[in-house]
Design a protein that fits this description.
With 396 residues, this protein is of the alpha/beta class. Helix content is 40%, strand content 20%. It folds into two domains: 235 residues, BirA Bifunctional Protein, domain 2, CATH 3.30.930; 157 residues. Helix 7 packs across helix 9 and helix 8 packs across helix 10. It is globular, with a radius of gyration of 23 Å.
């Protein structure tokens, strides 16, 4: 299945089960929301999960663009992305968690054609406040899927330190070349594919839990990971979503595989952020955008200072804006990318002057790095990778 067939198969399945399809919301949450970016499919639905009636009813499905910065250090591996799309289904006080799991198994092994022998599930095993999720455990056993109970917060989902929360059941798929072995907790070739959360509680400021007036079910499955499985690819970067990037970037810049992945991911994320109206700045959402773009420039200029994001093919900007349903003009995006590149280049010039004034520019202390960062805005990775042009020893 290609990306469009996959999306249609997912949403059609839930529409056939009386779910109404909702549009994707912006990466920028509404005013008053303390979160920088939309990080999950349920984020725009929080007020409805808390009990407010949704205008389209109690059963919903959709595809939501999301952005997470918690996995930046893992970006470039086979399965992590900064910006991605989340397929989701929701029951707002309607059906329960076991029903959601049964439908999920039916869709995966039926319409999407995943081999049932490659599935494994994990279930909340209980803690000092809430007992084990026996309903989910029983459902997986009835469906013939191996199930593992976990301890602590491994299968507990929350939207923050307070607010709606509850036990979840995660569906994993085997990605190894050999027959499945071990379990999701013992072998990382089991990749998490789909999370089903039963929102039963609200966590208060003191850490205690009270039952929600309206228990709900929230599910989320990363589209890119699903495509990796359905298309038999080694990584999310080998799926058809990234085909234009794989086609265009190698002819523009000669990059090793990991650098190609990070560059594709960060530029794609930057375009999506700009597409939702965010501009580079020194704080908040704008700083996230700035950090992503400057990380790309650091990687590009490490080997060749003549490389420019201004050379980014228009087709990649158009493809990204279209994928995330954004109507922003290509010229605006290109202008933001170019402006940030100019500012970063000017920072490098100033930085080299500052670095040259230090007593021992080739040997820096943690205090030096902190001074360069806090006073001159030079992040440590910039100092060690770009500014010196030589090996820097850090005294710790």
């Amino acid at each position: 299945m290609d990306v469009n067939q996959t999306i249609d198969t997912f949403t059609s399945f839930f529409r056939e089960h009386d779910h109404q399809q909702i549009p994707s919301s912006s990466l920028v949450p509404p005013p008053g929301d303390p979160v920088l970016f939309t990080t999950s499919g349920m984020h725009p639905l929080t007020r409805y999960i808390e009990g407010r009636p949704h205008p389209l009813g109690r059963r919903l499905t959709g595809l939501q663009r999301c952005l997470r910065t918690t996995d930046l250090d893992e970006t470039g591996d086979d399965s992590h992305l900064t910006v991605f799309q989340m397929l989701g289904s929701w029951s707002l006080g309607d059906y329960d968690g076991p029903q959601s799991l049964r439908w999920g198994h039916e869709l995966l092994t039926g319409g999407l054609g995943v081999n049932p022998g490659l599935l494994y599930a994990t279930v909340f095993g209980g803690d000092g406040q809430v007992g084990p999720d026996v309903g989910s455990q029983r459902t997986w056993t009835e469906l013939g899927v191996p199930v593992e109970l976990t301890s602590g917060e491994e299968n507990w989902w929350s939207n923050g330190p307070t607010g709606p929360c509850g036990p979840d059941s995660e569906i994993f798929v085997w990605t190894g070349q050999q027959p499945p072995s071990g379990s999701p907790m013992t072998d990382d070739r089991w990749v998490e594919l789909w999370n089903h959360v039963t929102m039963r509680y609200r966590r208060l400021d003191d850490g205690s839990l009270i039952p929600l007036d309206q228990p709900s079910v929230d599910t989320g499955m990363g589209l890119e990971r699903l495509l990796m499985v359905l298309q038999g690819r080694r990584s999310v970067f080998d799926t058809d979503i990234f085909r234009p990037w794989r086609s265009e970037l190698p002819g523009l810049w000669q990059l090793d595989e990991r650098t190609l992945r990070i560059t594709s991911d960060h530029l794609r994320a930057g375009i999506a952020i700009i597409g939702d109206g965010v501009l580079p700045s020194s704080t908040g959402r704008g700083y996230v955008l700035r950090r992503l773009l400057r990380r790309v420039l650091t990687l590009l200029w490490r080997d060749d200072s003549s490389r420019s994001v201004g050379d980014l093919p228009t087709v990649l900007i158009e493809h990204t804006l279209d994928r995330f349903g954004q109507g922003t003009e290509v010229g605006l995006v290109r202008g933001v990318l170019g402006g940030e590149q100019r500012r970063f280049g000017e920072l490098l010039v100033r930085g080299r002057k500052v670095l040259g004034q230090l007593k021992s520019p080739g040997r820096l202390t943690e205090t030096d790095l902190r001074y360069l960062h806090e006073t001159h805005g030079l992040p440590p990775e910039l100092v060690t990778e770009l500014l010196t042009g030589q090996q820097v020893t850090i005294d710790r």
